[in-house]
Amino acid sequence: MESITKNRQSPQVLRAMVERAYGPDRTPEGEGWIGELGHGWFNVAYRVRLRDGYEAVLKIAPPPGVEVMTYERGAMATELAALDLIRKHTAVPVPRVDFADRGHDLCDADWFCMPFVDGDNLSVAGPGLPAADLAAFKERVGAANREINCVRGTAFGPLAGPGDSSWRRVFTGMVEEVLADGERRHVDLGWDYDTVREAVAEHAASLDEVREPRLVEWDLWDGNVLVRDGRIASVIDHERAFYGDPLIEVGFAGTQLAAFGDPAPFMRGYGHPPLTAGETVRRRLYCLHLALVMVIETVYRGHTDPGPYDWARERLAEAMALLGRAPRQSADQPSGVTR
């Protein structure tokens, strides 16, 4: 996936980074030892083959000169913290961290190395699988997600803090940050920004039902799941984790928005019963937040293909309708992004 946030480095710099992580005796020579991995929208990741045959992944955060969304600041530190929590407190397979560097002397951003996991990306392999096999994988994802959500925090909010005892304050603050990001770059939502704020405020009391902070991935979709031999080989890309309401996980999005797919296998694996009335309202708020992020991030990624923006705009309209808001403009009006 192409994005202006991908911080690509020269072969000379990459070799120096590998040498620091693994030592000069294991640093590869010649050509063909490194290649960019194509999946992912945010960080750049390289597959590295060391001199002794060990295969690793080198992941680099965006360059400091590229503006990212507010919640994405410090994302690599969040990923490292999430990996540590998941490895310590669950049996969910995630890569270990071989080496991490936040010194910014070899390159201008944080970076770390981890083992390369040999597996198929579920978003790529899934469409070619028999329906029963794909459903079985989604059940396993649901079970893994529940295990991650069993990790308890002391407060809601970012893994590094500051935390808050109120999920309502944290979540409405998350929405406000996203809206401020959109306003700063003049992103056309198809809605007045204050109308979106009003929709959230009108339903915010439902958030008070959430009393216990849990570790949430938020981005555990098929593209962040590697599978092999009928099992989950690894869950990857943890930079969006925080302490919040497990119902905000993307696996539940299809309960309200059909475009996110049938949620039944995920919910079976998770062991979650049908949503209550209060849970339904919260999940609709979470769909709205997700759609806002997906619309606004297209500007921050520098996308030139309007497809992701148009798709996300449709989801935003659906989420607003679920919260009782009629569309501002008709579907046949031209779409666009103001940058």
From TrEMBL:
PANTHER family: AMINOGLYCOSIDE PHOSPHOTRANSFERASE DOMAIN-CONTAINING PROTEIN, AMINOGLYCOSIDE PHOSPHOTRANSFERASE-RELATED-RELATED
InterPro entries from the UniProt entry: AGP_Transferase, Aminoglycoside_PTrfase, Kinase-like_dom_sf
Origin: domain of life: Bacteria
Domain Aminoglycoside phosphotransferase intervals: 36-271
Official protein name in the record: Aminoglycoside phosphotransferase
Gene3D superfamilies found in the cross-reference section: 3.90.1200.10, Phosphorylase Kinase, domain 1
